[in-house]
Amino acid sequence: MTSDPMFILILLACAAVVLVLITGLGGFAKGDGWASKNSNKLMRMRIMAQFAAVVLIVIAILWRKSGG
């Protein structure tokens, strides 16, 4: 399973979501002006990464269901 390219892509997409989320939370925890300047950008990046992860998961499920 870990040698499956789709599984690796899904793991990378999930890791990207976690990385962006932690970066955003860390910025808010600092409390300086960085968070206010970059919060919308980080939110958009997180949503795009989540969308990519969900799409990859759905594709993997449909692919396995069809016998691929």
UniProtKB/TrEMBL annotation:
Residues 1-68 form the HIG1 domain. The chain crosses the membrane at residues 6-26, 47-63. It comes from the Bacteria. Keywords: Membrane, Transmembrane, Transmembrane helix. It holds the Pfam family HIG_1_N. InterPro entries: Hypoxia_induced_domain. NCBIfam families: twin_helix. This is HIG1 domain-containing protein. The lineage of its organism: Bacteria, Pseudomonadati, Pseudomonadota, Alphaproteobacteria, Rhodobacterales.
